Amino acid sequence: MSKSNWNNIGVAFSTIGELDVSAIQEECERAPQIAVLGSRPLFQQVAALLHTIGTHRFGPHGSDPLFHYPLSGAEFAPLDENNPLRQANLFLILVDGQQPLAAETTTTLHQLARLAIPTVIAICGIAVPDNPGPLRPEFAQARVVILPDLNAPQAAEALSAALIERLPEDLRLAAARAIPALRPTYARELVASISFVNSSYALASAIPEQIPILSVPFAAADILVLTKNQALMVYRLALAHGAAADFQSRMAEIIPVVGAGFIWRQVARTLIGLIPFWGVLPKVAVAYAGTYTTGTIAWRWFAEGEIIDGERLKELADESLRVGRERAAALLDAAQNQTRKGTKHAWRPWRKR
What we know:
alpha/beta, Rossmann fold, 2 domains, 5-stranded parallel sheet, 7% strand, globular
C-alpha cells in the first residue's frame, strides 16, 4: 500500500472527532410512548419479556416507554380529546388467542384504528395456523404477530421486529436504549442499512475514479464519506445499547476494537482500485462488506463486551464479502437497467432535432 493510502486512513480517523453528533444525541434522549392495551396479566408478561430478554451490559436507559391501558371496559374512551392514548407513538394491542374476540373488543379496535396511530397486534398463546385465511377487518391497519409462548426467546425476537418496524424512525434509537429486547433488531437493521448506503455510494463514485484526473481527490473524499458513515453507525450502536453519550469516549473505546475492520476495508479497496471498469462490482462489494464487518464487531462489543478476532473475524469478513457481492450485483443491475431506460429517450447532440 502506498504512503498516500496510509495517509488517507489517518485523515479519515482525524475527521471522526470533528463530526457533529448533536442531532443523534437529541434523538437518543427522546421519550417514545408505547401504549400496551390488554389485560393486566398479559401486559406484565410482555413487559417482563421486553425488559429481561436482550443485552444488559449497560442496562436500560431513560424512562420506560411502555404504559398499560385496558383494552375494553367502562374506563375506555379512546376518542376523548384528553385520553392519554392520543399521546402514544405506537399501540401494542395484546389479544388472548385462546379466547374468542368479544364484540366490545372488536368495537374498541375499530375506534383505535380511527386514531391512525401505528399499531402492532400480538395474538398470544396460540400456534401459527397452517392456513390463517384472510385478516380480520379490525386488524387490517396493524402489523399482526402471533406469539405461541411468551416465555420463549423467539417471542421477544418476533415482537421486537414488529415494534421496530412500526415505530416512527426517529424514535427507534431511544426505544432500543430504553428496552433491551429491541436492541438486537435495531442493531441488525442499522448495520444492514448503513452497509447498503455505503455500497450505493461506492457504486456512484466508481466511474469517476476511473478518470485519472479525478482519481486522487475523489479517492480521498470516498474514504472520508465511508468512514464518517461507519463512525456514526458505531455511535448509534453504542447509544442503542445504553452506553453514555460522550462521543469522544465512545470513539476512543471502539477504534482499537474495530480498527481491523477499517483497515481491512481500506486494503481491499486499494487493491481493487488498480482494476479498471470490471472492478466496479468488487469495489461495491467491499464497501458493503467492510461496513457490515465493522458494524458487527462494534455491535458485539457494545452488546456483550465481546471482541471478534482471529478465525472468527476472518469468517465474518468472508461471509460479509459474499453477501456484499450479492448486494453489489443487485445494485449494479438496477443501475444498468435505470441507465438503459434513461438512454432510450435521451437527447443525443449528433442527431437532428
